[in-house]
Amino acid sequence: MDLSALLNCVTSPACIVTQATSGLIIGTLLFLVAAGLTLIFGVLKVTNFTHGSFYMLGAYFALTIFKLTGSYLLTLFGGAALTAVVALMFERLFISRVYGRNVLMQLLVCYGFVLIFDDAVKFIWGPDFKAMGMPAAFQSPPLLIAGGVVPKYYLFLVGVTTAIAIVLWLVVERTRFGKTVRAAALNPAMVSALGINIGVLYGLVFALGGLLAGFAGALAAPVRSLTPGMGFSVLIESFIVTVIGGMGSIGGALIGSVLIGLIRTFGSIGFPLFTEGLMYLFMVVVLISRPTGLFGREFA
Amino acid sequence: MTKCKSAIDRRRLIKGTGAALAGVLAAPRIGRAEGKTIRIGMPTILSGRVAQLGTSSRNAVYLELEKINAAGGLAGRPIEMIIRDSKGKPDEAARVVRDLVNTDGCEIILNAEATSGSFAVHEVVRDLGTLCLHSISETSSLTADPKLHIPNAFRLARQGVHDSIVGGSYAAGIAKAKGLKTWMTCSPDYAYGRETTGLFVDYVKQFAPNVEFVSEAWPRLFQPDYTEVITKILQVKPQALYSCLWGGDLTSFIDQGNIYSLFTQIETFAVNMADYTALTVVKNLPSGIHSGNRYIKTFPKTAANAAWADAYRAKYNEYPTTWSWQNAAAMNFLAVAAKKINSTDGKKLAEALRGLTIESPFGADGKLTIRADDHTVIYYAIGWGTTIPTEPYLPDVTPGDWNQILELEAEWKKKNHYV
Prior knowledge:
The complex is a heterodimer of chains A (300) and B (419). Helix content of chain A is 73%, strand content 2%. Chain A is built from 12 helices and 2 strands; from the N terminus they run αααααββααααααα. Chain A has helices at residues 3-10, 13-44, 51-69, 72-93, 103-125, 152-174, 176-186, 188-193, 198-220, 231-245, 250-270, 275-289, and strands at 143-145, 148-150. With 419 residues, chain B is α/β, with parallel strands linked by helices. Chain B has helices spanning 2-34, 51-70, 90-102, 115-128, 141-144, 160-178, 191-207, 227-236, 247-259, 262-265, 276-279, 303-316, 322-341, 346-353, 402-415; strands at residues 38-44, 79-85, 108-111, 131-134, 153-155, 182-186, 212-217, 240-243, 267-270, 274-275, 290-295, 357-359, 367-370, 377-378, 383-386, 397-399. The longest helix of chain B has 33 residues, at 2-34. Chains A and B meet through helix 2, helix 6 and helix 11 of A and helix 2, strand 7, helix 8 and helix 9 of B.
């Protein structure tokens, strides 16, 4: 425990800026994955354990597209779009068959596909770890903001994630599709009775969740090594975020992921040997005080 | 009477079946010993995150196998490798080794498991008495601890204590030359990370007592995001940083550190950087990172070493790893020992391996030796240098002094009550 270092940090504007922006950076990527997870749970009532695999696929698709085109913009959208297609196919062909069934059955189907996706990645891209490399546009020294250090790429990452979050909110809150999705989350039978094809709706929601995870993977690819099975660790953290924020709450996922990011950055200074543990401790505290999470089960 | 007779018949049937089964199970071993081929079992990791450990080990084994079999095999017996994937699980590694010996008739075990698996395999071969060459584990206690010493097991891999002595000596020299007084460590939080970092810190302080380690970071093994670690390092502002992160973790750390310009601000010592697996994957490798050699084609700078690396690359279209040279060395030692005694008997081979010196492209002076008292390989090429982003990646290497290594290793053993 190094409380004096933590105290020094919170009394230094430069440290606050660096650590807070780092927390935001960690949180934004987590939010993209967690938002998709909580969206799928909120509407379909399915805990999608393959969600980490969608993140992994997004990263690998990005690796290939960047290698072929050299354009990071194409890479970002292409990686996310291809992941959405895979997610849609997975939903239509497999997971839709276990809706409403015992959660163990859903877990088994999802876990089976985690292994299938891991092996598919190994088969296509090879078992060794890979690196995409930073696009040339971001290969420059970091910015100094109020004495804190902020890499340009991370500013871009936060900007893109913020834009995605705004678009997601607009789609869910301001479009007919979003209205239908919210209605289906509350009462799927009524939505179906009104003549809306609930199967297509569910497929689109799953694809949207996959799209978000794919974006996260494509955004992570320039700075993280790619390995088969890389989705597992991000899946665990996104579950923590959704539990803290409240299963089914996108707003809760946003707050939860930023809180986790800040806990990691400030926690690593004050508690270097217990940083991971702090995250879980926080989750336990939230669960004890608010068992449904900070923002409950509302779909927002 | 009838009941008694059928009970006797049943007993005879059970006994007879048992005897037949025992004969069938023993057959591979008996048949193999009398036949031509000699089977060598190799448990290793061929799947998961560290699959490259197993694949690069297997590649090197087959590269040497071709040459050895072309020359007649081991004492006239061609080698047949039986390679099994333990998936990195120690209990699976132990089960695999028992199968390799009892079912597949393997007479020698070439153990290419990571440390946790190696300790499990070690106990199995202690029980079975099969000759075993450990070709991966770098944890020094595997051969240093007298409680683990068995006549039929040998280590053909670099050791953590050797790397730490050489690294500590090199780093202390740089620290004195550049006035690097404040240091920080950032290593993976598991046995290897803790032990290797601890040893490095001890030896740097021994060679440069003015050095102070002001902070530490222990990211989780396989942690994908190092942002909070990097910002902590920038906050602490040490003059130098040591890390034993490896593989994908190291490349992630380098990529993420680059965008913070971490390596232009802090002198970095990354013991596992100069390994082709990391060097060829990182797209923007910074210059000036200090690293120990894991396997580098240009160290030792000999035609034999370069030729071996070229042959490996020509066959597999990738560079060899430290695991590759260690397994190749193990095969070479077996070949020389078998030729020396003209036998493949496990006990006699073990006797021949004890204290054996062979010509090797991986030797500091063209030779490798298996030390007689603790069955571990010494005099391999070991040194540190600074990286550049293009081949040869580590152009100038300061070699370790084996006299100093052996002297300090002996002190370390005394300190840990191994002698």
